[in-house]
Amino acid sequence: MLQIARFEEDGEGEEKNFGTQQSKYHDPRTFKMTPAMIRARRPFFWKNAATFAVLSTITVSIYAYTYSFLGKDDFSDVPIPPITEEELTKLKKEYMAEQAANKK
Amino acid sequence: MFLAHRSVTRSVRSTSAVAGVAQKRGILNIFRNALGMDLPPSDDDPTPENRFHPWDSSPSPDLRQRAATIRALAKCPVTGKEINYTCPLSGIPTHHSREAWEQDKEYHETKKWEILKKVNIYEHDLRSGRPFPEFDFPQQQESDAQVNLSTWDLYFYTRQYYSMDTEFQLAAVTKMLSYPITMGALLHQFSPYLLSPKGPITLEGLKSLAALRYSLYPFQRAATFKDRPLRMFIIGARAEGQLPGHVWKQFQFLFPEIEFELHFIGPEAFYDREKGTYVSSSRPVVKRVDPYLSMVYHTDYFHVFHEAQDFFPYDPYLDCFFLFHPGLSYPDVKELWKKTMPGLLESKCPVFITGYHEQDSQNDWNWLMENFGKDLDVLMDRTDNLFSSTKWELNDLDPQEVYRFNQKIFAVRGKRYHAIQQ
């Protein structure tokens, strides 16, 4: 207990609050980066942007390739079960009746 | 009674008016807040406009005094007569008359007035009495945090200084920190100065820096025996000696758990604030900042101590010399430097020399090469110091001579003769 009290007195407790403290380099109100932080990050901006472009190109191209590959799939070889004329007319009648009911 | 009543109602009315204005501003701020807009700048914030005053009519008496000094001592660069005209662009007395000012083509083409204006506004900002939260320096960094020494901005960001958003804050802080961080950036293992041809460091320079880094990073070597503290000698100390301990501590923070002794040497090394004069003492004055850093003031010329063997033995692994704008070739001091320089070269320790501006550094270099060229190795070619002060200054004797502290840097060392197998 005594030790804890001493720890806080030293002011070390304030320093080590594990990232809960508001960063000095963000506006406390708008959370925008301060000009000092923008200046510090400027040397890395283009390299970071290039890395982002490379990584996003890889991801987007994998998605695009998958989409186009699956879109080309041909289902014509899948057999469709045969249907008789009678059943067809019966189904048509049911369908028309449903439509009429819906219109009312 | 009646009077008291009236005054009370008046005061009530005036406070309600103030409250009304404050409320209006408050509502506006809520909108600004919701939209994430920036607040209007407060009147305290420094801007080039609100810090600009001609020095002749400056609100600060010491700047009016400096303007008078310029008028009394400096000469117009066009007519050669006394200075009698204040440049309206920079607010600093620069020429004899308006005609001379207009004729000075170089002054306008090179936009020298822009730099002079910066001198003007920075000086006024320091005397403005605004709050200076940027002087609240950070403490020890966490052991896994790395410092980037590429530029001032990155250094401040990686050390988590106060966010310095304007040039005024940078000027105020870099003028102080230029001395310790210039030293730190040279010696640090991730120094921004690279080996030639990519940077200014020569092969001999790398040998000397490697020796110092051997002592600065004992955790990386197999045997970690405890040596004496590293000694940083600052020869011809003037302003450096007056910097408080917590500023120099920023140098030590770059090398955690390494002990340093800073030796300030020179007749102007120790300034007594209470008495307001330079104090000379037959014994070194020691100020201990904390267990890792102590500052020792020696109030005489270096060659005096060198001849008395006070600092013996020198060790290139543990000792290093810094000369902050020594002005080696100035007529009134060059005889003294001629006595000091052999001692520095004999020690075989690196000697880093900074200059106020290109010409100043070039003069130092030429003087050194002329007088001691045979006895020295160049460790670092003349280059821009990445940690120079960003605050522009001017010479009162020639207002167009503008400079920044530690703007240029180079390094030499006494020549070493290696054993040759016969």
TrEMBL record, chain A:
<dbReference type="InterPro" id="IPR018628">
    <property type="entry name" value="Coa3_CC"/>
</dbReference>
<comment type="function">
    <text>Required for assembly of cytochrome c oxidase (complex IV).</text>
</comment>
<dbReference type="GO" id="GO:0033617">
    <property type="term" value="P:mitochondrial respiratory chain complex IV assembly"/>
</dbReference>
<protein>
    <recommendedName>
        <fullName>Cytochrome c oxidase assembly factor 3</fullName>
    </recommendedName>
</protein>
<feature type="region of interest" description="Disordered">
    <location>
        <begin position="1"/>
        <end position="27"/>
    </location>
</feature>
<feature type="transmembrane region" description="Helical">
    <location>
        <begin position="44"/>
        <end position="65"/>
    </location>
</feature>
<comment type="subunit">
    <text>Component of 250-400 kDa complexes called cytochrome oxidase assembly intermediates or COA complexes.</text>
</comment>
<dbReference type="InterPro" id="IPR041752">
    <property type="entry name" value="Coa3"/>
</dbReference>
<keyword id="KW-0999">Mitochondrion inner membrane</keyword>
<keyword id="KW-1133">Transmembrane helix</keyword>
<keyword id="KW-0496">Mitochondrion</keyword>
<dbReference type="GO" id="GO:0005743">
    <property type="term" value="C:mitochondrial inner membrane"/>
</dbReference>
<comment type="similarity">
    <text>Belongs to the COA3 family.</text>
</comment>
<keyword id="KW-0812">Transmembrane</keyword>
<keyword id="KW-0472">Membrane</keyword>
<dbReference type="Pfam" id="PF09813">
    <property type="entry name" value="Coa3_cc"/>
</dbReference>
<feature type="domain" description="Cytochrome c oxidase assembly factor 3 mitochondrial coiled-coil">
    <location>
        <begin position="37"/>
        <end position="82"/>
    </location>
</feature>
UniProtKB/TrEMBL annotation, chain B:
<dbReference type="Pfam" id="PF13824">
    <property type="entry name" value="zf-Mss51"/>
</dbReference>
<protein>
    <recommendedName>
        <fullName>Vps72/YL1 C-terminal domain-containing protein</fullName>
    </recommendedName>
</protein>
<dbReference type="GO" id="GO:0033617">
    <property type="term" value="P:mitochondrial respiratory chain complex IV assembly"/>
</dbReference>
<feature type="domain" description="Vps72/YL1 C-terminal">
    <location>
        <begin position="74"/>
        <end position="104"/>
    </location>
</feature>
<dbReference type="InterPro" id="IPR013272">
    <property type="entry name" value="Vps72/YL1_C"/>
</dbReference>
<feature type="region of interest" description="Disordered">
    <location>
        <begin position="38"/>
        <end position="62"/>
    </location>
</feature>
<dbReference type="InterPro" id="IPR046824">
    <property type="entry name" value="Mss51-like_C"/>
</dbReference>
<dbReference type="InterPro" id="IPR032717">
    <property type="entry name" value="Mss51_Znf"/>
</dbReference>
<dbReference type="Pfam" id="PF20179">
    <property type="entry name" value="MSS51_C"/>
</dbReference>
<dbReference type="GO" id="GO:0005739">
    <property type="term" value="C:mitochondrion"/>
</dbReference>
